[in-house]
Design brief:
The complex is a heterodimer of chains A (about 120) and B (about 280). Chain A is mostly helical. Chain A is built from five helices and no strands. Chain A is about 70% helix and about 0% strand. The longest helix of chain A is centred in the N-terminal third of the chain and has 28 residues, at about 10-35. Chain A is flat. With about 280 residues, chain B is mostly helical. In chain B, helix 13 (about 230-250) packs antiparallel against helix 14 (about 255-270). The two termini of chain B are about 40 Å apart. The chains are: A mainly alpha (about 120), B mainly alpha (about 280). Chains A and B meet through helix 1, helix 2, helix 4 and helix 5 of A and helix 2, helix 3, helix 4, helix 5 and helix 6 of B.
């Protein structure tokens, strides 16, 4: 029990440093962009960057989709075949496009994946 | 579960045809129109769902559990105690960085190597602020300090796809809190149970983990639906981004995949003559 609760000071320092760095990488750009927000309303403000930002969200989501499919959360059960993951995209996509409900689409996706990984 | 109000809003935002000649209004995919020489209103939210916050919390919670459990196992294998593993998740709250950190520590790297490598992975977060800022317009300093802590990739993905007009901050914080709780709990379970988990939950973990890819598909689908110039360009950006990410992943450079895709996607469809009116 004591072993489980052991916290090495030097590791804690490392975690705090990494945590601070991660936090600042999230907060500083957000804060700067929020502050800039007022100035972008002027006719001269903005330019090409805000236009590009509209595509950044979907691009990031697409990248996350690819990495989560190809890598997945580290599989506890061992190597996971790509095929069920790729095939389950289709019913998920269909559900998202037709049902227009986020929760249902995810449910359909997870259920399809479960089914396909058993069958395949 | 079907309420008339969200159905109406979805109809207005998703199915209203886009008139490119007019230069304003919403595209069928719900994105702001981007017409060369036209006006781009970044205040228009890319909302295709009534609100993504509360509904999207569950997929993130489900998806984070197996990932966090896996991290807990990995942290133990790298020599961390249960408390250290949980602290790692509570303090850093970034899957990519945490896995990299314990991987390096387990391989015997000193903190001089592990810290910079971990921090390098956080660079992609710099893109999240500017994308979310228009949706969080008016957020004060204190709230931004709170909102920034839980801005993980998945929270960003959901928030960028749409937050409700009212109670944006509260919805964002609910999302972050749910993600944080799931991440911490999963780490605790993984670190405590360890290899016992592998035998007990062989099939369940990957299935739960599919909640994340399913969530991303569900977020993308409405943004890619419909006709119109803007939606076509989004599709192009998405294809480029996905390809870049896949290539880097297969080359073993997955830590750069999100950042590279985030740059490549918008760059591929960038037109220099666009102005923000």
């Amino acid at each position: 029990m004591a072993e489980a609760l052991r916290v090495r000071p030097e590791l804690l320092a490392l975690l705090l440093a990494a945590g601070l760095g991660t936090y600042l990488s999230r907060w500083i750009p957000l804060w700067l962009a929020l502050r800039r927000g007022g100035r972008e309303e002027t006719p001269e403000g903005g330019g090409a960057l805000p236009a590009a930002l509209a595509f950044l969200g979907p691009s990031v989501i697409a990248a996350l989709l690819v990495t989560s499919l190809l890598l997945g959360p580290a599989d506890l059960a061992g190597a996971r075949s790509l095929l069920p993951g790729l095939l389950a995209l289709l019913p998920t996509w269909y559900a998202a496009a037709r049902l227009r409900s986020l929760g249902l689409a995810v449910l359909v996706g997870v259920a399809s994946y479960g089914l396909l990984s058993v069958v395949l | 579960m079907i309420r008339p109000y969200p159905l109406v809003r979805t109809t207005v935002y998703v199915w209203k045809p886009y008139d490119e000649r007019m230069g304003y209004g919403r595209t069928a995919g719900g994105l702001p129109p981007i017409v060369p020489g036209g006006r781009l209103d970044t205040n228009i939210q890319n909302m295709s769902y009534d609100d993504t916050g509360s509904k999207a919390a569950l997929p993130i919670v489900l998806g984070y559990l197996p990932a966090a459990m896996a991290f807990g196992v990995a942290a133990r294998e790298a020599g961390l105690s249960v408390a250290e593993a949980v602290l790692c998740s509570l303090i850093i709250f970034s899957g990519a960085s945490q896995f990299a950190l314990v991987g390096l520590l387990g391989a015997g790297a000193s903190w001089l190597v592990a810290l910079p490598a971990t921090l390098l992975l956080t660079v992609r977060h710099a893109l999240y602020g500017p994308v979310l800022a228009p949706k969080l317009r008016g957020l004060g300093a204190r709230r931004s300090l709170a909102a920034a802590f839980g801005l993980t990739d998945e929270v960003f993905a959901v928030a960028s796809a749409g937050l409700p007009e009212r109670g944006r901050f509260r919805r964002l914080m609910t999302l972050e809190a749910a993600a944080y709780g799931s991440w911490a709990l999963g780490t605790l379970v993984g670190a405590s149970a360890g290899s016992a988990l592998v035998t007990v939950l062989p099939g369940l973990a990957p299935v739960l983990g599919y909640a994340l890819p399913a969530l991303f598909v569900a977020l993308l689908a409405p943004q890619l639906a419909g006709r119109g110039l803007a939606t076509r360009r989004v599709r192009e950006a998405v294809v480029v981004a996905a390809t870049v990410a896949a290539v880097l992943q297969m080359l073993g450079l997955q830590q750069w995949s999100v950042l590279a895709a985030a740059v490549a996607g918008p760059l591929a469809v960038w037109e220099g003559d666009e102005r923000d009116g």
